[in-house]
Amino acid sequence: MNESCDETPSNKDFNEFLQQLAKEAQQHPPLSNQRQLALSKLVNEILRSHQLIHPQKGRWQSNLYEDFYNEALQKTMLEICQKIDNYNSNHPVMAWVNFLFKNYFIKVVNEREKQGITYIPTIEKKQTTCILSLDDLDRSAPIEETLENAQLLRQFLEDDPENLLANERLRERPEVTFQFLAIAKFVEDRTWDDIATNLGIPLQTLCSFFARRLQKLMPYFKRYLQE
Questions:
Q1: Rounded to whole angstroms, how far apart are CA atoms 4 and 6?
Q2: Are 211 and 117 in contact (CB under 8 A)?
Q3: Boundary residue ending a domain (83, 98, 115)
Q4: Residue in 185, 175, 171 with CA at minimum distance from that of residue 214
Q5: Which residues are registered as beta bridge partners of 120?
Q6: Using an 8 Å Cβ cutoff, are 61 and 98 in contact?
Q7: Is 5 within a domain?
Q8: From the first residue on, what is the mean pLDDT of each consecutive set of 10 residues in the chain (227 residues)?
C-alpha cells in the first residue's frame, strides 16, 4: 500500500523549488502582480530556509552584529526583488543569495565604520570620547557634562537654528526626530530603555539611528557649541 508522508525536502528539492519560483518571476513583466507574487514567495522561502550564511559572526558584539546583519539582509532581499533577471539558473539560488548577502554585509560594515558606528564620538569641549558599542550609549556621559553651560545645549537642541535636528527622522517612524531623542536623552535625562519603551521602538533600532545621526550632525553641534 502506498502511503503519503510529509518529509523535509532535500537540499536538491528545495533548490529546485527556489529555482522554479525565480524562473516564474523572470517570466512575468517587472512590476506585474504575477512577478510580485512569485518574488514574495521566493523571499519568504529564502528567509525560512535556514541556509543563509552568517558572515563574520563572532567578530562583533551581538546586538551590533544583528544590526549589521539585518541591514545587509534587507538590502539583499531588495536586490533580489529588483534584479531577479540577473539570476542565472545554472547556479543554485542560495549560492546567488549568499554571494549577494556577503557582499552587502561587508559594504554595511565598511559604511558604518566610516560613519563611526563602532567608534562614536560624544561632544566634548577639547577632546573626543569614544563609545565602543551601542550598549555603551546609555552609560556614556551626558553631552552637557562636557560643556561649560548646560543651558546652551538645551537652547541649541530646542531652537535647532538650521532645522537640521528636526529633519533627521527615523525611517520606520518619521514622527520620531533626532531633535526629539536628543532632548529626551540629554535635556530630560531619560534612559534609552525608557525612551524606546515609551515609543514602542526596539532599543537597537533607536540607538543605531541616534548613533549614525550623531556622527553626521557632529559638525553642526560644534558650530554652535564650541569655540
A1: 7
A2: yes
A3: 115
A4: 185
A5: 131
A6: no
A7: no
A8: 43 86 92 88 88 83 80 88 91 92 89 60 32 36 45 83 89 86 84 83 81 82 71
In the DSSP assignment, the letter for residue 112 is H
**Closest among 13, 18, 52 to 38, alpha carbons compared:** 18
Among the listed residues 49, 40, 64, the one whose alpha carbon sits nearest the alpha carbon of residue 15: 49
Distance CA 180, CA 166 (A): 8
Identify the three-state secondary structure at position 29: coil
223/221 Cα distance (integer angstroms): 6
- Which residue bears the cell 517570466? 27
pTM of the complete model: 0.49
Both 20 and 110 in a single domain? Answer: yes
Phi, psi at 174, each rounded to 5°: -60, -15
